Amino acid sequence: MWRSSTVPLAAVAAATAIGALSIRRLSTSPLSRVSRRTPGRVGDFVSSLETPCLLVDLDALETNLKRLPESLTASPNLAIRPHAKAHKSSAIGQLQLQLSHAVGLCCQKVCEAEAMFNGGVRDILLSNEIYGLERYERMAALANGGATITLIFDNIEAVQQAAQAAETQGIHFRALVEVNVGQDRCGVDTVEEAVELAKKIESYAPRLEMVGIQAYHGAAQHIRSYDEKKKVIASVAEKAKSVRDALVQEGLTCDVVTGGRNGNVLVGSGEWCVH
């Protein structure tokens, strides 16, 4: 964060003239002074905080985190894996691991995974496809640092990139095949494609460990009707089951079926560990 009042007039004029001068470039200029201050401290009045800022009621947060696993006792094979993109805070992520007994966290981007790792999280599912060897090398570095890393795939080229990065750094990734269950954003479309991709992943063992599938339909959380939402989730579960059954029939591992969204935790969420 920086304030125009702390930047000399010459630097402000230059920034105005250029129009798109980044804060990073401005902060490296000898003409600039970047103000870095703690937005709030324990004991400060709420009215003294600068906005925008995120305020968390810890009592409510901790109560909800404890209540989540209690509400799922009827589903012993359901493992909780919250998504870090909801808060982007490793401190809150640690609370989820401790109080909700989460098996790990989901991250949407490589930089999010790195931030969670630096905050002490050691089990990370990158719940979005990535492309490019450099990104897989960064994820391999986290595995090299002691993290359990699970990646998802919907194409062979990405599988090859991940296997190359794992081989170079001497680590292994857990792998999930992403199945398109109605989101129409990514994932393989058919059972046959899922089986073919899973076989390709297994061909790169031990660097890639085929563990299951991801069946995600995020748009379902925006369905207002509870009955309609249950209907959509039922169709997701049906397709996920058909893919899982086909993989098992082919002798392929499918111990994890992961998906969900936070629109209604009791309708569809989490990581299902299928035994």
UniProtKB/TrEMBL annotation:
Molecular-function GO term, any one: D-serine ammonia-lyase activity
Gene Ontology terms: biological process: D-serine catabolic process
Residue ranges annotated for the Alanine racemase N-terminal domain, each copy included: 56-258
PANTHER family in the record: D-SERINE DEHYDRATASE, ZGC:162816-RELATED
Protein name (Swiss-Prot/TrEMBL): Alanine racemase N-terminal domain-containing protein
Source organism per UniProt: Phytophthora nicotianae (strain INRA-310) (Phytophthora parasitica)
